Please model this.
Amino acid sequence: ENGRTLKFAVLGTGFWAGYQLAGWHELAGVQPIAFYNRTIQKARALAEHYAVENVYDDVDELLDKHAHELDFVDIITDVSTHAMLTEKAAARGLDVICQKPMATTLEAAAAMVEACRAAHVALYIHENFRFQAPIRKLKEILLSGVMGKVFKANVAFCSGFPVFDNQPFLKELDEFIITDIGSHVLDVTRFLFGEAESLYCHTARINPEIKGEDVANVLMRMRNGISCYVEMSYATIKEHESFPQTLVTVEGEKGTAILLNNYEIRVTTREGTNVTTASPQPYPWIDPAYAVVHASIVDCNRDILESLQGKKNAETTGIDNFETMRLVHAAYQSARENKVIFI
Ligand code: 89Y
Model:
């Protein structure tokens, strides 16, 4: 590592920020120097842990005092403030990393892309599911050609994990699972199978204690002809709980690949079945209940950092993630209007 250390501010120090910072800590050449949080006590606890001296409950004050020494901001607030914070940082000439889901509406997501373009700053979305070890391995298998031409796939995130215990604000969202999990699994679907041409979606709310939908079934026709069935649910009772894993079945003309619980990928051709395991890196700070997601934070951050350092293009830019947001919002429109949406 020969470049200078990039300095960043964290905007939002809630549940996710601790893991995001631990993820940054695994990488050389990057350092947090200021934290903002609406409730300052939460920011102070994390600041102490990372020896960060600058802590604010006013984001404008943070930017006034530190924009000159910052390279980028890492936005880790809930979705409702993403556009506003992105616009503030861009206006100061700072590159922006923002957690998924990008924004509450497609219009707000477009405004984020435009604000960053106009200010000549980079915009990245921290979308980590496509960086999960088993998803990367599955992509490698698809590219190897062993399965032949793929004709259909199932991408599933169905769970009964008590997700609202750690993230209670998710209960209050009018639009829940397609924004929270659909943003991930629809992005994984794009990563594995390409861009969608059309989509049809059903939604349901099973848990009476939440505002939004907790079940969504999305059927997509991809531009390359592959038919993808993407399912998500937080109302599923399973013998073997799979949270937070995305399980995938891919069928090709020469074989079928199945990504199972516990990171196992079984590839069956007419010759027989090959089994590989792609487990996440066991970083010591990982919460085992979130292992595959927490480990992928490091890979997602590395991809973005190498782009900030001018070494490569990042995968999850604002422009790229806007295509995932298009699918999220098309799914809601389809469910509302009970019709196929052409992308
Ligand atoms: O917020 C969600 C995410 O991004 O991954 C899993 C999660 O924490 C709960 O659905």
